């Protein structure tokens, strides 16, 4: 028996003053509708978006809100992320209390956001700004009991309504399988290629990564094509396979181990030779993969303590500091259960 979700919606909007709040709220409601959330869940998304956007407009510097949403299903969710490079929050616990306010740092309304969310986390370190994550929906926890936890963030290229990037996570008897797909180009045709790739991955969750991508190559034949990578994580082992320019690393402290993908493009009638790479997987190991809308020069050592948070925090920090804004972008992070410290309702 398998359970999981597919992520195909990602939008971001700058929030620099109060005139941007309405747009952020409308975007959150649209994301909730795409994910098929219930009316109470949609209302929670609107409330959280209003509170977080108001905080950004009043206190943050270079503030943005990023909305990520799954396709409708039993494990659907919407994730609201706010990021900034401002002064941070000097006392996080105080900021979570009702009635908290300050004239110089973000924090008001965070307690209400945590109550309205199915999962909530916040990262604030001196000199690195603040990242707040709230998820709403039946799949908010992003995991199965005692299994690895997968989180991420994605956005469309500015000016595009659809992203050509996407990812999915499925848990089953064979462990957790995560797949990230980048449809070639931008816009609706790239999104169509991405959707075909993710549908193929969802139907091959019990296959090893190389076999999964071989099947995806067949199913994408005749279309625009895509690049992709897949990883299986279970019982202290990671199996990885990639085709094309998906970047992937394993590790959270010291020098991460780069994972090599095969050259080529899926679905365009060219020879590909996907091969599985097997590596140890356990405490202290984070699997990170992203599309080419993210520059490769990010460094997790800049974010002390981030590995103890929800993995979407790590993904959001990488996105904030390495997104190019010239392409669609997606980042996924998978951590063992022992690394997580997310606040759940």
Key terms for this structure?
about 350 residues, alpha+beta, Heat Shock Protein 90, Phosphatase 2c, domain 1, five-stranded antiparallel sheet, 7 helices, disordered C terminus
Account of the 3D structure:
- The protein is α+β, with helices and mostly antiparallel strands.
- The protein folds into two domains: 3-136, Histidine kinase-like ATPase, C-terminal domain (Heat Shock Protein 90, 2-Layer Sandwich); 149-344, Phosphatase 2c, domain 1.
- Helix content is 25%, strand content 30%.
- The protein is built from seven helices and 16 strands.
- It has helices at 21-34, 39-59, 92-95, 110-116, 187-202, 209-219, 311-322, and strands spanning 3-14, 64-70, 78-83, 119-124, 130-136, 149-155, 165-172, 175-183, 226-234, 237-243, 247-250, 257-259, 277-280, 287-290, 329-335, 343-344.
- An eleven-stranded antiparallel β-sheet has the order 13-10-9-8-7-1-2-3-5-4-16, with helices on both faces.
- Strand 7 and strand 8 form a beta hairpin.
- Helix 2 packs antiparallel against helix 4 (110-116) and helix 5 packs across helix 6.
- The radius of gyration is 19 Å and the shape is globular.
- The model is unreliable at 102-107 and 340-345 (pLDDT under 50).
